[in-house]
Amino acid sequence: MITAERARELVAEHGSPLFVYDMKGIRERAKELMGLSLPYGLTVRYAMKANSHPEIIRMLVAEGLAFDASSSYEAVQLLEQGVSGDKISVSSQQPAHNLSELLRAGVKFVATSMHQLELFAAEPNRPQGVAYG
Q1: How many CB atoms lie within 10 A of CB 61?
Q2: Mean pLDDT, 10 residues at a time, the chain of 133 residues
Q3: CATH number of 14-121
């Protein structure tokens, strides 16, 4: 925690509004989650919509986390930040406007409707195997 005095100093130096992140705390939580051992496995995913700051994304990639994108636009942003497609899962109520591109990059696609499932099934770049659950 930062003191009220330190917060005033930071605002005087950087302006307001100001967001201050505890990278050490975020890293420690990521390590803690990645260290969990569950009988049927675990994929730790960071929700891109929580904070897309490139330094946070880079740090979480380095810690081995996977990512959840709530839109095709977030998935593209993650790819542009260097996140490997196989570490990204996109799940959205809206069909991905660039489904072919995302699948070609290895992004995991979660169909949330029959319409999305039909779009996925018609996609030539879809993976051979699918998971359900």
Answers
A1: 18
A2: 91 93 94 94 94 96 97 96 96 89 94 89 82 61
A3: 3.20.20.10
